[in-house]
Design a protein that fits this description.
Largest sheet of chain A: 3 strands, antiparallel
Radius of gyration of chain B: 28 Å
Order of helices and strands of chain A: HEHEEHH
Strand content of chain A: 15-25%
Shape of chain B: globular
Number of helices of chain A: 4
Number of domains of chain A: 1
Helix content of chain A: 25-40%
Shape of chain A: globular
Domain HMA (chain A): 23-91
InterPro entries (chain A): HMA_dom, HMA_dom_sf
Radius of gyration of chain A: 19 Å
Number of domains of chain B: 2
Strand content of chain B: over 45%
Oligomer: heterodimer
CATH architecture of chain A: 2-Layer Sandwich
Protein name (chain A): Heavy-metal-associated domain-containing protein
Organism (chain A): Emticicia agri
Structural class of chain B: mainly beta
GO molecular function (chain A): metal ion binding
CATH topology of chain A: Alpha-Beta Plaits
Largest interface: A-B, 22 and 21 residues
Chain lengths: 116, 751
Amino acid sequence: MKNILFILFFATIFSGFTKEDPPKTAEVKLKTSAICGMCKKRIERDLGVTKGIVGSNLNLDDKVVTVIYNPKKTNPKKIKNAISKIGYDADEVIADQKAHDALPGCCQKSAAPHKD
Amino acid sequence: MKSLKKIIYISICFTLVLFTTAGFAQNLTGVVLDNTNGKEEAIVGATVHWLGTKVATQTDIEGKFSIPRTKSGQLIISFVGYQSDTLNISNETDLKVYLKSENQLQEVVIRSGSTAIDRLSPHQTEIITSKALAKAACCNLSESFETNASVSVSYSDAVTGAKQIQLLGLAGTYVQMNVENVPSLRGLATTFGLNYIPGTWVQSIDVGKGAGSIVNGYESMTGQINVELQKPDISERIYLNTYVNSLGRGEVNLNLAKILKSENGKPRWSVGLLTHGSTLQSNIDKNHDNFYDLPKYTQVNFINRWKYESDKLMAQFGVKFLHDNRLGGQIVKNPLALDDIIYRFTNSTNRVEVFSKTARLFPNKPYKGLGLILSGIIHDSKSQFGFRPYDGKQNTIYGNLIYQDIIGNTNHTYKTGISFLYDNYHERFADTLMKRTEIVPGAFFEYTYKYLDKFTAVVGARTDFHNLYGTIFTPRLHVLYNINPDNALRISAGKGFRTPNPFAEYFGNLVSSRTVRFLDRIKPEIAWNYGFSYTRHFGKSSLIVDVYRTNFVNQLIADTEHPQFLYFYNSQGSWNSKANYANSAQIELNLIPVNRLEFKVAYRYTDVWNTIGKPFNQDITVRKMFIPRDRVLFNVGYALPYDKWKWDFTLQYNGTRRVPNLSPSYQHTSYESMPIQYAPAFVNINAQVSRSFRRWDVYVGGENLNNFTQKNPIITPDTPFGTRFDAGSAWGPVVGRIIYFGTRYKLGGII
């Protein structure tokens, strides 16, 4: 019986996590210096684990990343700084030099444009 | 009215048929090429088929194909040794497809989610990915199977801290344990071997059930587990893991990888260093029996390996070193004892391993290859059980040369080669000395027939010339039949052979006052294994049902029915007798109702019997000890995108199992009339939460959250030098709830 209660307890915790209503979100579009698919993956992943960001999508045609975020937890300025720390320009905030230099050669600004 | 409806219906059908036939009247044609070296070369015999249909064809001698169009918009082109290509087809007519070479002697495997099933392998193989390994957060191989339904892990005794796995109702000693296809955790390493591979070193684990491929030798009986370690050329440059738990166990794992030289963007030379250090120095005695619940220990362990890769040659070589120190037994001298003695268990193990793997590749013929595996092991283990010492030394040299090619076209492939094994054992327990040297050259041939993606049959056999036990012939058969892309049937049958190492395999039983008696000269163990499995995929979810039987021709019986003796003897019986066997049936459902939410429910039934009684010249078939008949596993995991937050919950139900009668008043006088004792069933709950940051992961979790422990796991702990002392018959957890916390730091990955 004790075990069953335990399971129920955990089940409630889990359902609490999963069924929570998504908080009100805002959206911002930022021009980046992304070059290729690897950049896209990296930026989307790193933004994905950043505080307050719900999701993001980078369009490689115009290099604009659309970020959906929770305005209670973050703001566009912080998001731009986060992108800069990944190694890319975000609008007027230029890439953090150290982070940029650590990127693979094909993803640095000097690299020739390529698709994959 | 009715007829009008019918007419409309027929006309609709008719127009539909018309449209479809009109739309797909023309065949789709194309050519499949390889352009690895800048030259275009036709790929002959590549399979071309429409996704989700039975429409398939193969490329001809010029690499050309012609296939009727279907409603499926996705065309799959596959060929052994190349990465399969899926093309979206709308109204293209003449295709030109370049396949990329796999450039490895490995089978194509789809690795997604946390549990994957190798769909192409005729062996029933589950893949535990690094994602599934992260669910258990910790710490070494023995904890990696926590969320796996097929393999279960248990402590074998209440003192040494050794862990044993079970597969198909039999001990892990009947499973061939390979590290990157090199037989590694065998012989004397079976005792603590699972603690020798830290979880953070592991990239993935393949769990194969049933008889394995003969290419890796004759030792696999119930299955084979292959551990793939982090590769120096594709890993993060720095991977640091730290871990601490509520018992005071601390761990640091540091993996380093560096590409030394690359050409055309591909790594040529790379080097990797995997390191591990862990320790537990607190006195844990939660059940107040004056015995350490877990031994104090320190382990230092590393692997350094170098990898070279070019179009024609792939080579790896490296060295492993391990030092492990354990102290268990009584914490303080019994204050009531008159003498000044204390029962201690100590173990000190040193192990050095060198290995090399070389493969000659043929760039335009990826189905062809020549591989050589070489390894050498020195294992030295020294222990003390109270007054009784145990020393074990093992020296092993192993070599395996494999050649792989096709007969005519890739529907017929084969692997053949020669192997060599030198095993030298020197063991001494108290005044019993066991020495043996095995020299085993052997040869093998394995033929694979493949008909499209529908049917695969693997027939293999090997002959080994054993210096002690004569010629060993080992046949194996595997069949895979894909009824359609989502339903697969597998059948396997094969023989296995191994030489047992009684002291290493029943190490935990030595922590007792039992007298060890060998009633026979120990013969090698021989078993036949037959199995059948059915896999069904629906969407991302899957259902697996399997049934296996292992039948022993000869088995080493470790008889602990008499509380004062540990008897070793050979079993009686022949290959079809019902004397010593294990039946196992399992049903497993992996459900992914929505993205990032996974459920796993599995039930396993095992029925394992032994024929014992030789010490009293009796013959009685009873359930094998310590094997639970029923086991249920339930796991649920949920993650946010990119694993920003991840929750995981696991519940295991372990059914009742037979245990020895250890009541101090029990007098064992007969096998036929002995009372049969069962240990109660118990539940084990684990849960974990983790949070990912850009470079960091942090996790916190708990093991055995329901805090279940076996009461009195040690018999007569007050008198460890008395006649009834026994700590080797534990069946459940000795320590209760454990809470742990850990971090991972990754730098310089590809993404």
